[in-house]
Design goal:
With 149 residues, this protein is an alpha+beta fold. It has a single domain, classed as Nonspecific Lipid-transfer Protein, Chain A. It contains six helices and five strands; from the N terminus they run αβββαβαααβα. Strands 3-2-1-4-5 form a five-stranded mixed beta sheet.
């Protein structure tokens, strides 16, 4: 990671990079893409204004459609309508660097900190709803393997 440029989570550059990696991993797997009609998207709600970069919605996607994989720093309806994994979640709930702060023993502290974050969001008038829109197959085995490898 030290050789890669780093961007703030959810920034336009971060979303472009995340989508690019997903597309590259699927292409490198040499799958028969004609077998899939599948999408993945993440929308980050209530982001800091500095992350909007001219966007109305902050997020990213990649999808396999018509035998081709594509993606980007956008949330197109054509992707979200595909079977797969689609989530809309408050930016603050997943923007933290918990993997750097907490180890396996620290998960109880992380859960307690998360409860405080939910309370703070409620006080700020932001509903703490995580909306996951998924349909089968969430991650077809071949795609899951491509993304994990």
């Amino acid at each position: 990671m030290s050789d890669l440029e780093k961007w703030e989570f959810g920034s336009l550059e971060w979303c472009q990079f995340a989508a690019k990696i997903g597309v590259e991993l699927i292409n490198q797997a040499k799958l028969d893409l004609s077998e899939f009609e599948w999408g993945f998207s993440e929308e980050y709600t209530h982001p800091p204004k500095r992350l909007l970069a001219g966007r109305d919605r902050v997020g990213w996607h990649f999808m396999i459609r018509n035998g081709k994989v594509s993606g980007g720093a956008s949330l197109p309806d054509e992707c979200i309508k595909l079977p797969g994994f689609h989530v809309a979640i408050e930016w603050a709930l997943i923007a933290h660097a918990s993997s750097f702060i907490y180890d396996l023993k620290g998960q109880e502290k992380r859960m307690n900190d998360e409860k405080e974050l939910f309370k703070d969001l409620d006080v700020a008038g932001i509903r703490s709803n995580i909306n996951i829109f998924k349909s089968e197959p969430i991650f077809p085995p071949a795609i899951g393997k491509a993304l994990m490898d």
